[in-house]
Design goal:
8 strands; 311 residues; alpha/beta; globular; 8-stranded parallel beta sheet; TIM Barrel; 2 domains
């Protein structure tokens, strides 16, 4: 070991040096900026690092993606501890603020309060809680149900009361559009703002006109969901920005891209017995090492970290 100098070299290798408080300030600043805050979904810490490298403003951790990655449908089967563990791993891999899907808060209002506390401790910049019944369903599928507005207000009230860092963003998601209509969804959103929500997530709106109606009615930051193969028109971030939306998530996009590539690649190997035909469609080893900061790790105390060329 080279003592103090080696410790300095290791700064930021194992976890971001940007503090949770700084990330939360950055997230709130991004929500207040004229440009829309774009948050692609990351299903792993490595993907989160790539999101930062490409130049986005934030990272999103999707509940649907976490479920899918565990081989489960998005029907409320994941637990608070699973969500906290994965989101902590992702948040500490990037300097960007990370927003996480906290479903219904994993139970009653007191559970929602604990959820906020755990996510704050995990270094997240914010979370969203939805007004579906527990267990929930994917917001773009049929068969979901919402709780009475008063129940969601209690859920939000507990979450806001449990928050210790005022920078932590608590976003309220309403799934009422598909069940009760646009006007009812707007009415719910207003009640959620009164309950202390910092931002409103409008799930499964049909088109730009409905996004505009929400923007005209709600005076806090708004988040849009541009998920593929769902009920919402993929209107584009620039259109949402012109409408006045403050943030947009692409929750499942990276997982769908990755899984499609994996499936095609496995078929290629099954049919030809070799991956030679896939080399041009792979991320090169050198790029993977760059994202994983292989050279920096190798420089950090070479007496202890001796990675051979066989890797």
């Amino acid at each position: 070991m080279t003592g103090h100098n080696a410790a300095g070299t290791a700064s930021g290798l194992f976890s971001t040096v940007t503090t949770a408080t700084e990330k939360r300030h950055a997230f709130r600043a991004a929500l207040a900026a004229p440009e829309i805050c774009r948050l692609p979904g990351a299903f792993s810490p490595l993907v989160a690092r790539l999101v930062q490298d490409v130049g986005f403003e934030g990272v999103y951790v999707s509940g649907a993606v976490l479920s899918a990655d565990l081989g489960l449908p998005d029907i409320g089967l994941t637990t608070l501890s699973e969500v906290v563990d994965r989101s902590r791993q992702i948040a500490r891999a990037t300097d960007l603020p990370t927003l996480v899907d906290a479903d219904t808060g994993f139970g009653e209002p007191m559970n929602a309060a604990r959820t906020v506390s755990e996510l704050e401790d995990a270094g997240l910049a914010g979370c969203h809680l939805e007004d579906q019944v527990n267990p929930k369903r994917c917001g773009h599928l049929d068969g979901k149900a919402v709780v009475p507005t008063s129940d969601m207000v209690r859920r939000l009230g507990a979450a806001v009361a449990a928050r210790r860092d005022p920078g932590f963003v608590i976003c309220a998601r309403t799934d009422a559009r598909a069940l009760e209509g646009l006007d009812a969804a707007i009415g719910r959103a207003k009640a959620y703002v009164d309950a202390g929500a910092d931002m409103i997530f409008t799930e499964a709106l049909a088109d730009a006109g409905e996004f505009e109606a929400f923007r005209a009615a709600i005076n806090v930051p708004l988040l849009a969901n541009l998920t593929e193969f769902g009920k919402s028109e993929l209107v584009g971030a620039h259109v949402l920005q012109e409408i006045g939306y403050d943030a947009v998530i692409y929750p499942v996009t990276t997982l769908r891209i990755a899984m499609h590539a994996v499936e095609e690649g496995l078929h290629e190997i099954a049919n030809h017995g070799t991956q030679v035909g896939l080399l041009g469609r792979m991320q090169h080893r050198s790029r993977l090492y760059e994202l994983n900061r292989y050279a920096e790790f190798n420089q950090f105390d070479s007496a202890l970290f001796t990675f051979g060329s066989w890797l």
